[in-house]
Amino acid sequence: MQSNELATSRRHFLKTLSTGLAVAGTSLYLPPIFAAENADLILRKNAPLMQLHFNENSFGMSPKAITAAKEAIERFGNRYPDAAVDELKAELANHVNLPIDQLIMGNGSTEMLGAVVNYANSQGTTVVEPNPTFGDLRSRAEALGMQVIRVDVDESFNTNIQAMQKQISTIKGNVLINLCNPNNPTGTIVDKGELNDWIMNSPPQHMFLIDEAYHEYALANTAYESALPLIKEGRENVVVTRTFSKIYGLAGMRVGYAMAAPATAKKIDALATSFNLSIAGTTAAIASLKDKAFFQKSIASNKQAKTILTNTLNALNLEYVNSNTNFVLHQINADLASYSQHMKENNILVGRRMTAQDGWNRVSIGTPDEMQEFAKTLLLFREKGWV
What we know:
Layout: H1 3-19, E1 50-51, H2 63-76, H3 82-96, E2 103-106, H4 109-122, E3 126-131, H5 136-143, E4 148-152, H6 161-168, E5 175-180, H7 192-200, E6 206-211, H8 215-218, H9 228-232, E7 238-243, E8 256-260, H10 262-269, H11 279-290, H12 292-315, E9 327-331, H13 336-345, E10 348-349, E11 360-364, H14 368-383
Parallel strand pairs: 1-10, 3-4, 3-5, 5-6, 6-7
Antiparallel strand pairs: 2-8, 7-8, 9-11
EC number: 2.6.1.9
Keywords: Aminotransferase, Pyridoxal phosphate, Signal, Transferase
Family: Belongs to the class-II pyridoxal-phosphate-dependent aminotransferase family. Histidinol-phosphate aminotransferase subfamily.
């Protein structure tokens, strides 16, 4: 395309976006991410760093959580946080409707994954998980010399339960099934009926670790359901982990937890680290649970920002996986190395290689303002032939 044609095309696209007209070939309406028809797209050479690579909550923490953490440090920073941890457990038990002895607290949910791996290793267990998925459990298991079998997701990036079941049927002895639901980096969920049937019909030596780090985001999808009700029914082969890092924005505070039936919780808790929570993280988590208004604002911000992103991907005909999280896995029409480098040169950090296929990237959802700027950058990349 010649330079004058590019300019005309860009002006038309800018006008379409800024006026809210339907994108050609679709029935979608895009948000007004460009202020005027003659908006000047420039490289972000000197712009602030945009961190869209670790699935953090760019919306931030609850102001009440910030205040609580500051006050706790000033008043109790020299004391062990035992009383505060007890209070957090009580708040959390009420929040999830479980007895306190079925909760295990961790320095982030990754500590809980490690405790489950240590328990499984003591039982001579084989790990089976989707590919791709969050790699922390696999790394810990392999470091202990455990066998880890990875089962590819299907062509739509959904966890392939039937293929996993077929693989597990060939394994003698104990099995740890590692399921991140919603899955990271795909953003897909496991159908609630299919997952429940699988667990209900599995033998006791098959333990299910359900990593629900993105649970709160997925609640909007009626096809999603937590595995927590199975624990409440007394299933001793189910462990659910969650975190305050995502929807509550406490990634830097490192607060996570696991839930299990009483006997299982006792075994896992024995392998977790003692004195593993800080006074700042604990009090921030308590305040976050109480701040219902902030929770809804955080959900709304993610939804709005994700809409900006997906509408832009639609406009550029870049395929993506429908996500139930605060990130989106999408095509980039380029090799990931060069794409990532171009983004880095424009002060945007995006996800690392996470799929077998090149040409895909997982981008974290920032604030609505950040995603508008990211959308502008993608459009400029299209002009330059980079996506």
